[in-house]
Amino acid sequence: MAPSVQLSNGMQMPLLGLGCWQADDGKDVAVAVEAALLAGYRHIDTAYFYANEADVGRGIKAAIATGKVKRSDIFVTTKLPPIGMRPERVEKYLRKSLKALDLDYIDLYLVHHPVGFEEVDENDNMPLENPGTDKEKVKFDFSTDLIAIWKKMENMVELGLAKTIGISNFNPRQMRKIMAIAKIPPTVNQVECHVYFQQKELREACKQHNIAVTAYGPLGSPGRKLFYEKQGKTIELPDLLRNPVVRLVSDKHKRSAAQVLLRFITQEGIIVIPKSTNESRIKQNGDIFSFELDEVDRQALRSLDQGVAGTIFKFAEIFPGYEEHPECFF
Ligand code: NAP
């Protein structure tokens, strides 16, 4: 059985899942999801924002059709998009995700981000003003009401559309705001987390509230460089896979740098969702429970933490104008 974490509502969430962001070529995503499920993954992470739920759904269906895996064995996560951040839109977007995925229920429904965007068009996940100019900004919805949204999220569990609900990119203050009113508390907070940004403070706050942590960008999200280059933007990214300490530990265990990065996070009790659309890397990333890092390795990897300075996902750059929103992360 795939190693898992017990959530506060008693559900088991597999420690390893396949991330699907940037897996935007339809054929690749479906093939990757099927390959991951056949390689033993039991957890798939997608989002309305990734615009690939239909392909993810095809991959799940193809794996189930082999008879080797059942729907009930698979933990599927998707997310409420920023354009859906109004209470009256929550059920609409969850139903749209379920329809695209061709599923009756989702295992985990996350609020993707604590900030809302204007809903100009349901297919435009990031509406912009002055696009392509130096005045380009996201059209934010500054009225985001996290409490009203959370009440609707709870309703999704009551309707049987989601088995459990959670949050993503929420800071400790926003978590406390939800915990103070929740009838159904969030079971998971999905945040950026890797050796350079180990999220110590946030992990401590999650522990206090019995909220499990899922790490996104666990390999340092190296594909983002190309993703932004395709949009004519250049970004600087640190290369976690070539860090000398990571390489030393990887040589010691005769495992790849990626396996070391993923094993480190899972040994900290954090769920990981590495993205790959390459079958051999999917298998490699899936094979992380056959070795253990010892305390010396773990201390060496812990020492790579740079705190907030190690952040790779800089929201103010990703979402121009972000810092003006009252629910901005920082
Ligand atoms: P990541 O998993 O850290 O890195 C993915 C990149 O690493 C891809 O370019 C992939 O390329 C490459 N890769 C995968 N396995 C590798 C290996 N063994 N060796 C070398 N390179 C490897 O970054 P991420 O995709 O940004 O994050 C993971 C998932 O978290 C996303 O897919 C998404 O599901 C989720 N996420 C959530 C949020 C949020 O706001 N909640 C934000 C970002 C991401 P190939 O495909 O070519 O293998």
In which order are the strands of the major sheet placed? 3-4-5-6-11-12-13-14
Instruction: Write the H/E string, N to C.
Output: EEEHEHEHEEEEEHEHEHEHHHEHHH
The mean pLDDT is 95
Largest sheet: 8 strands, parallel
Query: How large is the share of residues in beta strands?
Result: 15-25%
Uncertain segments: none
Helix fraction, binned, reads 25-40%
The backbone outline, from C-alpha atoms, is globular
* Total strands: 14
Tell me which ligands are bound: NADP nicotinamide-adenine-dinucleotide phosphate
* Total count of helical runs of at least 4 residues: 12
Structural Rg: 19 Å
**End-to-end separation:** 39 Å
Structural class: alpha/beta
Secondary structure layout:
Elements: E1 4-6, E2 12-14, E3 18-19, H1 26-38, E4 43-45, H2 53-65, E5 75-80, H3 90-101, E6 106-111, E7 116-117, E8 128-129, E9 137-138, E10 140-141, H4 146-158, E11 162-168, H5 172-181, E12 188-192, H6 200-208, E13 212-216, H7 224-229, H8 244-253, H9 257-267, E14 271-272, H10 279-286, H11 295-302, H12 315-318
Parallel strand pairs: 3-4, 4-5, 5-6, 6-11, 11-12, 12-13, 13-14
Antiparallel strand pairs: 1-2, 7-10, 8-9
Helix pairs in contact: 1-2, 2-3, 8-9
Descriptive report:
The structure is a single chain. By secondary structure, the chain is of the alpha/beta class. Helix content is 35%, strand content 15%. The chain contains 12 helices and 14 strands. It has helices spanning 26-38, 53-65, 90-101, 146-158, 172-181, 200-208, 224-229, 244-253, 257-267, 279-286, 295-302, 315-318, and strands at residues 4-6, 12-14, 18-19, 43-45, 75-80, 106-111, 116-117, 128-129, 137-138, 140-141, 162-168, 188-192, 212-216, 271-272. The strands form 4 sheets. It has an 8-stranded parallel β-sheet. A two-stranded antiparallel ribbon has the order 1-2. Strands 7-10 form a two-stranded antiparallel sheet. Strand 3 (18-19), helix 1 and strand 4 form a beta-alpha-beta unit. Helix 1 (26-38) runs parallel beside helix 2 and helix 2 (53-65) crosses helix 3. The radius of gyration is 19 Å and the shape is globular. The model has no long low-confidence stretch (mean pLDDT 95). NADP nicotinamide-adenine-dinucleotide phosphate binds at residues 19-22, 45, 112, 168-169, 190, 216-223, 241, 256, 258, 273-278, 281, 284-285.
